[in-house]
Design a protein that fits this description.
330 residues, alpha/beta, Rossmann fold, N-(1-d-carboxylethyl)-l-norvaline Dehydrogenase, domain 2, 2 domains, 8-stranded mixed sheet, 16 helices, 52% helix, 15% strand, globular
Length: 330
C-alpha cells in the first residue's frame, strides 16, 4: 500500500517510520528541494535527525501532483499555519478530478485566524466530491520517541465509517490506536494543551518545581473541562490519551517546543528570542489568541490563557502574572 504525507519535518518523518514498519511505501511532500534530494539520494534528513536513516521505502517530492497521483490516502503533517494554503492548492488541482481521497490529519494546531480545527479546514477547502473521509489522529507523542519505538498511544477520531481500516494502517507492536467520534474534541484539546505547556515551562524557568507544576496541571485540566462544556467534549475524550495524556506529556517535558519556549521566557529570555530558539513553529503562541477569543465569546474564564495572553501579547511581567495565576481559585 502507498501513503502520501504532506510534510517532511520531525513528526512527518516519525509517521513515515510507523508506516514503513507496517510495510507501506511513503511519498513525502516538502517545498525544500535540498531535503528532497537528501531523502531520495541518501535516505537521511540530518537537519531533524542527524543519526537516523530513513527506510528506502520513503521518497520525497516538491510536487503536489505527485502526492495526488501516488496515493488516495493523504496524511497531513505540516505546521497548521500552512495547511489552508496547501489545501487550496490541492483543491485547485482537483477541480476537474473526481478522485476521492482519505484525509488523515496528524498536525497539531488550528486555523488561528478563523478559529477552525484542521478537520474543519479540510472540509471547508476540499470539494465534497474529492473527500472519501476525514479523520484526525492525536495523542501524547514525541517524534523522536516514536523513532525509538517507544510504545505510543493515539486517538483516531472521525465521523466516517472507515476508522478500522485507517487503524490497521498505523497500529503495530509499538503504536496503539483508540477510536472516537469526537473529532472536534480531540483537535480542540490538542491545541489548548500547547498553551498550558507554555505556562508549565514558565514555572520551571522561574525556578519552581514539582509542587508548583501540579497547580498548573490542575488548572489546565479545569480549563479543558470548561472548553469541553462549550464544544460538547465528552469526559471520555477529556481523560483520553488525546486529552489528559497529551497535556501531561507536553506540559512536563523539555522535549516539548511549547514547554521549552515557556521555560526560556520564564528564565528571562525575550519572547522573540525564546520563539527563535525553538527552531520550529511554536503552536501554543498563536493558539493563545484564538482561545482568548473563544473565552470572550462564550463568557468562560480561562486563567492560564489569560495569563499567557498578558505575557505574550500585553507584555506584562512574567513572574507577576504567574504568581497571580497560581492563586486562582480552584
Amino acid at each position: 500500500m502507498k501513503i502520501s504525507i504532506l510534510g517532511s519535518g520531525s513528526f512527518a518523518i516519525a509517521i513515515s517510520k510507523i508506516l514503513t514498519d507496517n510495510g507501506m511505501d511513503v511519498l513525502m511532500w516538502t517545498v525544500d528541494k535540498e531535503q528532497v534530494d537528501e531523502i531520495n539520494n541518501n535516505n537521511t534528513s540530518k537537519f531533524y535527525y542527524p543519526d537516523y536513516k530513513l527506510s528506502k521505502k520513503v521518497k520525497a517530492t516538491t510536487s503536489l501532483n505527485d502526492i495526488l497521483t501516488y496515493s488516495d490516502v493523504i496524511v497531513i503533517a505540516i505546521p497548521s499555519k500552512f495547511i489552508r494554503t496547501t489545501l487550496k492548492k490541492i483543491h485547485n488541482k482537483l477541480k476537474n478530478n473526481l478522485n476521492e481521497y482519505i484525509f488523515i490529519n496528524m498536525s497539531k494546531g488550528m486555523d488561528y485566524s478563523k478559529g477552525l480545527t484542521i478537520s474543519q479546514i479540510i472540509e471547508n477547502t476540499i470539494d465534497n466530491k474529492n473527500i472519501k473521509s476525514v479523520s484526525s489522529i492525536t495523542g501524547a507523542s514525541f517524534a523522536k520517541q516514536i523513532l525509538d519505538k517507544n510504545i505510543t498511544r493515539f486517538t483516531l477520531a472521525s465521523h466516517y465509517d472507515d476508522k478500522k481500516e485507517i487503524k490497521r494502517i498505523f497500529e503495530n507492536d509499538y503504536i496503539i490506536i483508540d477510536e472516537s467520534f469526537d473529532i472536534i474534541g480531540i483537535e480542540m484539546l490538542s491545541s489548548l494543551k500547547n498553551v498550558h505547556a507554555l505556562a508549565s515551562g514558565m514555572i520551571a524557568g522561574l525556578g519552581y518545581e514539582d509542587n508548583t507544576h501540579a497547580i498548573i496541571i490542575t488548572l489546565a485540566l479545569l480549563e479543558m473541562k470548561k472548553l469541553g462544556e462549550v464544544y460538547n467534549i465528552s469526559d471520555k475524550t477529556l481523560f483520553s490519551i488525546s486529552g489528559l495524556g497529551d497535556l501531561v506529556l507536553t506540559a512536563s517535558s523539555k522535549m516539548s517546543r511549547n514547554y521549552i519556549t515557556g521555560y526560556n521566557v520564564g528564565r528571562g529570555l525575550s519572547i522573540d528570542e525564546s520563539i527563535k530558539q525553538a527552531k520550529t513553529v511554536v503552536e501554543g503562541v498563536e493558539c493563545i489568541k484564538v482561545m482568548k477569543r473563544i473565552a470572550r465569546k462564550e463568557k468562560i474564564n480561562l486563567p492560564i490563557v489569560n495569563a499567557m495572553y498578558n505575557i505574550f501579547y500585553s507584555y506584562k511581567n512574567t513572574k507577576e502574572e504567574i504568581l497571580k495565576l497560581l492563586k486562582t481559585n480552584i
